[in-house]
Design goal:
By secondary structure, the protein is an alpha+beta fold. The protein is 33% helix and 24% strand. It is built from five helices and eight strands, in the order αααβββααβββββ. A hairpin with a 2-residue loop joins β2 (106-115) and β3 (118-127). Keywords: Nucleus, Ribonucleoprotein, RNA-binding, rRNA processing.
Length: 249
């Protein structure tokens, strides 16, 4: 589809077909995330795990919308990334990379899938150990998860991006953690993963975004990254949220 054609007819959640495509993409990427988590074991190569995540998305998206008149693009919208410990996010290794996982690693997994350009994204923190997570690792993961849940509830028509920024900073502080600077939650549109409307996770004098109000039929990727503050432990949660009665948890 050309840029001109997309501008002529911008599809949104007022279309039941669009909602179905978002939902299908969300189901696939959530299953892909479970697969990637199951592959995270000590001494496993990171590049092999990332490839399995991408391959699963390509395979599953290839099985849907096969018998339609118009050819529909579908597949990986953002490569599977596996970031360890003090690497914040977006580590997508080259095929020649030999890095492996080790017991006790804090892993941040992020990936995205699309059907006809309608994108579902997900990120999750996983600790490579047996038994419950305790201490500061537990704090930073809980901070990210709780802040993400709060943000998802605030991204609603009539609310403003500043409302979300203020709330997630308060959540992080309650766990004695910090929101990582420079992380943005973007509005998404068809074939656009980083739209113009954004939510700034951490407000400061050097980083500013335009004030924006959430509107009906918009879609956002909510991205939360927290830190213990010592540069060693990070927690990350990310998911798609959309208005019109549907949400990917």
């Amino acid at each position: 589809m050309s840029d001109d054609e997309r501008e002529e007819k911008e599809l949104d959640l007022s279309s039941a077909e669009v909602v179905t495509k978002y939902k299908t993409a969300a189901e696939i990427v959530n299953k892909a995330l479970k697969l990637v988590i199951s592959e995270c074991k000590p001494k496993a190569k990171i590049v092999d795990i990332c490839e399995k995540g991408d391959s699963y998305i390509r395979e599953q998206t290839g099985n849907v919308y096969k018998n339609v008149k118009r050819k529909i693009e579908r597949g990986v919208a953002f490569p599977t990334c596996l970031s360890i410990n003090n690497v914040v996010c977006h580590f997508s290794p080259l095929a020649s990379d030999e890095a492996v996982l080790e017991e006790g690693d804090i892993l941040k997994i992020d990936m995205a899938c699309h059907i006809d350009g309608f994108i579902a994204v997900v990120a999750h923190t996983h600790v490579l150990q047996e038994g419950p997570v305790t201490g500061r690792a537990a704090d930073v993961i809980a901070a990210a998860n709780t802040a993400a849940e709060v943000a998802l509830r605030l991204v609603r028509p009539g609310k403003k991006n500043k409302d979300v920024s203020d709330a997630i900073q308060k959540v992080a502080a309650a766990y004695d953690c910090k929101i990582v600077e420079g992380v943005l939650s973007h509005q998404m549109k068809q074939f656009v993963i980083d739209g113009n409307k954004v939510v700034l996770s951490l407000s400061n004098p050097d980083t500013r975004v335009d004030e924006a109000e959430f509107e009906e039929n918009e879609v956002y990727a909510i991205d939360i990254v927290t830190s213990t503050g010592d540069g060693k432990g990070f927690g990350r949660e990310k998911s798609s949220t959309w208005f019109g009665g549907m949400r990917q948890p």
